[in-house]
Amino acid sequence: MPNSLTGGQVPPRALDTVGLVDQGLGNAGTAGSAPTLEEGDTDPWALPQLKDTGQSWKGKVAGDAFKDNVVLSNPVAGLVLGVLVTVLVQSSSTSSSIVVSMVASKLLTVRASVPIIMGVNVGTSITSTLVSMAQSGDRDVFRRAFGGSAVHGIFNWLTVLVLLPLESAAALLERLSALTLGVASLQPGGHAPDILKVLTRPLTDLIVQLDADVIVGSATGNTTNSSLIKRWCGTRAQPTAGNSSHCGAAGGCGGPGPERNSSAPEELLPCRHLFAGTVLTDLAVGFILLAASLLVLCACLVLIVKLLNSVLRGRIAQAVRTVLNADFPFPFSWLSGYLAILVGAGLTFVLQSSSVFTAAIVPLMGVGVISLDRAYPLLLGSNIGTTTTALLAALASPADTLLSGVQVALIHFFFNLIGILLWYVVPILRLPIPLAKHFGDLTARYRWVAIAYLLLGFLLLPLAAFGLSLAGGIVLAAVGGPLVVLIVLIVLVTVLQRHQPAWLPRRLRSWAWLPLWLRSLEPWDRLVSRCCPCQVCSPPQAVAKEAHCYENPEVLASQQL
């Protein structure tokens, strides 16, 4: 030991701070030598030994992302999470059923699930917006189609703006659903009718199959490193030579009974789907399926529009338009809208998908078969009909989790019902209709506004809000609060400029004092046209055709200066 130290012999005592410094200075002249510590001492700069937690990222508990999570205690975070999930799965019925199952499994509280349910309702309107984008070739058709898709989203957003603050302050929906449960006697065992699943299940089983046991285990905490992709779809008793004594009593080697399981070896039967023997990771398979599903979705939307445009022409279109837009005779004409709500709810219940129903309504509006005033109650009815899927999924829960699951399903139902009471019952409060018409006119003139609305409303802004929620509620309030106040002031001043300009100061009676790029979309339109030289983002040809019509003296004389 004395020979191992360059600074001479060191007495066997604990090294103090000064001794360590002197020894380090003495060792500085040696080539590559490090200070040597006495036995029992540890180097504070040494790298710690990493401990294996026994749980890989692949086998991370999915429930930990929601259970006891501070982020979801923020209502805005829950809202944008519901929007993003519904945008990804393209089905509000699936998203709401997932939330119901998580509440029934105690992964989410009822209070934390209410904003998520609101976000689910908002996110489902992206399907109708995508359908309307397939009709952007003609200006008038695109105006009607996009207005019809926008009325669905505007209704959902207006309902969220009213009910989300009320829910945060007084837990309105939670208490109303609890009160309903208190007066109802429920029995478990209901099951949703698998109408569409019977048709689609054979095809989807040929593409991919998921292991339900792995999904349940990752959600409940029994994590494994197994793949979500199902590889084995059954077992078969494997006969062994000279081992016939194990058969017979149980009805043969293939017969039922505990003797077969304990004595005869079983052979696993591989699944027969596209990714059964793949070497790709679950993440890679998920991205491949997502890209393929979006491609198929866009192709189907285009085909739906082309089919309706070719079929609904002439007398057929006139007959369908007469039936769908017909009203009851006076004085019962007001019942026509409520009948449309019931029809929309019934058809959505049969289809078990509001996305399918809205995807069929929007092209009919584009070709001029259904008016916006009639499509509005039909879309409201589809919001009511899609809640039945979550309700039936909750009724299928075990008896110990039945009440919590049904309560979440009732919250979804009451959210849409209160929205109908707010924005449909009183005719003067049907604000989504004029707002959608204005939005349709805007997007018909600037088609890139529809793409901006799609990206901002359903992807970028929800992601930004969710990112701020991760930083904390204070950061979200500090950034989002001033923006919300600014938007409210701009809307209020704009309304007063049109209706009561005398109430405003002279400076605020118009926005002419602002730069052009802050008060008009023309500079942005020129910028987009330069960045997008193709015909996709430029105004439709009908605009130029209409401009030439005003060169006619008769047309000019009929216009008011």
Automatic annotation (TrEMBL):
One of its GO terms (molecular function) is sodium:phosphate symporter activity. Keywords: Cell membrane, Ion transport, Membrane, Sodium, Sodium transport, Transmembrane, Transmembrane helix, Transport. GO terms for cellular component: apical plasma membrane. It holds the Pfam family Na_Pi_cotrans. The chain crosses the membrane at residues 76-100, 112-134, 154-173, 283-305, 338-364, 376-396, 402-426, 446-468, 474-496. GO terms for biological process: sodium-dependent phosphate transport. The keyword Acyltransferase does not apply. It is a multi-pass membrane protein. The keyword Transmembrane helix applies. InterPro entries: Na/Pi_transpt (IPR003841). It is found in: Apical cell membrane. Belongs to the SLC34A transporter family. NCBIfam families: 2a58. PANTHER family: SODIUM-DEPENDENT PHOSPHATE TRANSPORT PROTEIN 2C, SOLUTE CARRIER FAMILY 34 SODIUM PHOSPHATE , MEMBER 2-RELATED. This is Solute carrier family 34 member 3. The gene is SLC34A3.
